[in-house]
Amino acid sequence: MIEGRALVTGAADRLGRAMALKLADMGFDVAVHYGSSAEAAEETVAMIKAKGCHAVSLQADLLDMDAAQALVPAAAAALGGSLSVLINNASIFEYDTVATATRTSWDRHIGSNFQAPFWLTQAFAAQAPDAGTDANGEPIARAAIINMVDQRVRKLTPEFMTYTLAKMGLWALTQTSAQALAPAVRVNAIGPGPTVQGVRQSDEHFARQRAGTVLNRGANPEDITAALDYILRAPAVTGQLLCVDGGQHLGWKTADVIGVE
């Protein structure tokens, strides 16, 4: 299994916090990145330290590409050595369509979900440890990147247009960087479905969304962290997307299909 130090973007709360705590359970020291939630980030740091691991909080506006490029070196310096895991989790998720999208919505979604992960990937790869050798004499990656994508890249809709385009770009980056950075760095993606209720989402809508998946259930944070655990322990896996979504991306019961023989 990959070991050492990790950086999780957007780790102050929600799924970012859950993944940061899972990494601590796995023995990683963790840099907790946040944008504006300083208090929540410090709570995450305290929870990691309570598990016996080192942790620091680092603020950066990932819409500022200079700040994005500087985050990996800052995390490595704060933790005392090179990083072996990067989780690109920080995300802006706001509604627009092809008709309502603006330069602002484009810049916010592309910047947070695609551009920043690209520069973070570049900086991470520049300091990542070289591949080791396993018992069979074959190369084994000692570093990993996990990109938090979205199940919707498997099931395109015209809703959340610029967000979806950005996540499609991140999925492409996952595959191409897996090619470019092998064998030293493995790069994979997790595609959550309905897992944590959205801040603008009603209880009723969230429940309907979970119930409407193929499995009639959504995912829980523990399902996402289980996927994280698997990816870090799977030395032959790279360039993959693991949709942890109750089968949401497989939804097929549409009016053009139901009742047609």
Low-confidence stretches: none
Sheet with most strands: strand arrangement: 3-2-1-4-7-8-9
CATH superfamily: NAD(P)-binding Rossmann-like Domain
Q: Main β-sheet, in a few words?
A: 7 strands, parallel
Q: Give the CATH class.
A: Alpha Beta
The number of domains is 1
- Structural category is alpha/beta
What is the helix tally? 7
Rg from Cα: 18 Å
H/E element sequence = EHEHEHEHEEEHEHHE
Pfam family, one: adh_short
Keywords: Oxidoreductase
GO molecular function, one term: oxidoreductase activity
Family: Belongs to the short-chain dehydrogenases/reductases (SDR) family.
What this model shows, in words?
This protein is an alpha/beta fold and 261 residues long. The protein has one domain: Rossmann fold. The chain contains 7 helices and 9 strands. It has helices at residues 14-25, 38-50, 65-79, 103-127, 161-181, 203-211, 221-232, and strands at residues 5-8, 29-34, 55-59, 85-88, 132-133, 139-140, 143-148, 185-192, 241-244. The strands form 2 sheets. A 7-stranded parallel β-sheet has the order 3-2-1-4-7-8-9, with helices on both faces. Strands 5-6 form a two-stranded antiparallel sheet. The radius of gyration is 18 Å and the shape is globular. The mean pLDDT is 95. GO terms for molecular function: oxidoreductase activity. Pfam families: adh_short. This is NAD(P)-dependent dehydrogenase, short-chain alcohol dehydrogenase family.
Descriptive key words:
261 residues; alpha/beta; Rossmann fold; seven-stranded parallel sheet; two-stranded antiparallel sheet; 9 strands; 41% helix; globular; oxidoreductase; NAD(P)-bd_dom_sf; NAD(P)-dependent dehydrogenase, short-chain alcohol dehydrogenase family; oxidoreductase activity; SDR_fam
